[in-house]
Amino acid sequence: MTQTQNILVTGATGTVGRQVVAELLTRGHRVRALTRNAAKADLPAGVEVVEGDLTDPDTLTPALEGVTGLHLITFGGAYFAPLQTGPRILELARAAGVRRVTVLHGGEGTPLEDAVRADDGVDWTVLMPVEFMANALEWADGIVTRDEVREPFVSRLSAMVHEGDIGAVAAVALTEEGHGGQEYVITGPEVLTVADKVAAVAGARGRAVSLVELTEEQAVEQWRAAGHTDEVIGFLLEAYGSTPEIGRTVTDTVEKVTGRPARTFRQWAQEHAEAFGPHA
Ligand SMILES: NC(=O)c1ccc[n+]([C@@H]2O[C@H](COP(=O)([O-])OP(=O)(O)OC[C@H]3O[C@@H](n4cnc5c(N)ncnc54)[C@H](OP(=O)(O)O)[C@@H]3O)[C@@H](O)[C@H]2O)c1
Where would I find the NAD(P)-binding domain in this sequence (predicted)? Predict the structure, then answer.
């Protein structure tokens, strides 16, 4: 057990941020969580919830007071708009005494990540997870209402990662020595097809799920109906249609950094079985 430390988590109400918060709490650290709206944050007891906006860095000054570690996201506002405020955030962080920073990679060349990498005043670690297992929650509605998943590119491969493991790697990098200047590609323990994942969800809910393969055109229609922007749709077509090697190659980051094996999708599906409807 390392000494108790004070850590500020941004994006704390998000898929990854909630896991960073949970891991830090489990490890006995004091957690401050940033949100733009404390009334909606719904964070666990023991977390100090503070309001602030990453697009307006000076609002972070009270949140940064007395903090030694800082977890950052690279976007803020509508549609994951890349933050332009990295240099000022880092200036405030250094002034407050922050020594370690983790940043959740949000695609190539985001200004905030570039600013973090250029900062030699802190030990920074770039967290580069592949596809989140939590993305499968997008299937919940179709599974609950029709016992069906509708997806394009069903034979695509993914080394998808449990978001809890991203949180665990972040918590270690924020509180222990030896992770400065590292870029961690974080994956699950196996490479799965869409069909493998659907089978795992069906097993967890105790009821069959059929997989319907969509054409690209049908997929675009479905994503538009779900409210995705053209930019996100373009990204999904690229990421799913020709998944880069990094997205379908297992790394040993989770085990190396946390000392525990990476969690499987089967495990994730069991933990989330309720979201996919009642057992038969
Ligand atoms: N989905 C994937 O498979 C995948 C894979 C690899 C990497 N990624 C990357 O992961 C990131 C998304 O992470 P996520 O899914 O955990 O996010 P998320 O669930 O969409 O959560 C967004 C978070 O950002 C906070 N936020 C947004 N604008 C803010 C601002 N101006 N000031 C302060 N906080 C702000 C929100 O806080 P409040 O609303 O509480 O203020 C919320 O906590 C993206 O960069 C994406 O590229 C995703």
Answer: 11-104
Which residues line the pocket of ligand 1, CB cutoff 6 A? Answer: 10-17, 34-37, 41, 53-55, 73-77, 80, 104, 106-107, 129, 131-132, 135
Residue at 160: amino acid letter? M
| CATH code of domain 133-160+188-248+263-280 | 3.40.50.720
* Secondary structure class of 91 (helix, strand, coil): helix
Residue to probe by mutation, ligand 1, list 59, 75, 128, 137, most atoms within 8 Å of CB = 75
Domain boundaries, the chain: 6-129, 133-160+188-248+263-280
Q: DSSP label at 269?
A: H
Token look-up 């994956």 returns: 187
Q: How many other CB atoms are there within 10 angstroms of residue 58's CB atom?
A: 11
Q: How far is the CA of 11 from the centre of ligand 1 (A)?
A: 6
Please give the sequence-ordered ranges of beta strands (E in DSSP) within 48-107, or none if there are none.
Answer: 48-51, 69-72, 100-104
Distances (CA, A) of 97 to 35, 52, 64, 68, 139: 21, 19, 9, 6, 43
User: Would you state the pLDDT for residue 106?
Assistant: 92
What's the confidence (pLDDT) of residue 1?
56
Q: What is the spatial distance between Cα 164 and Cα 204, in angstroms, rounded to a whole number?
A: 18
Taking the domain 6-129, which CATH number applies?
Answer: 3.40.50.720
Q: Which two tokens stand for residue 98?
A: 């922050």
* C-alpha gyration radius of the chain: 19
Could you identify the residue written with the tokens 């493991």? 165
Q: How far apart are CA 249 and CA 190, in angstroms?
A: 8
Angle of helix 216-225 relative to helix 230-241, nearest 10 degrees, comes to 140
pLDDT in tens, 95-105: 999 999 999 99
Using a 10 angstrom Cβ sphere, with 0-12 exposed, 13-18 middle and 19 or more buried, the burial of residue 164 is buried
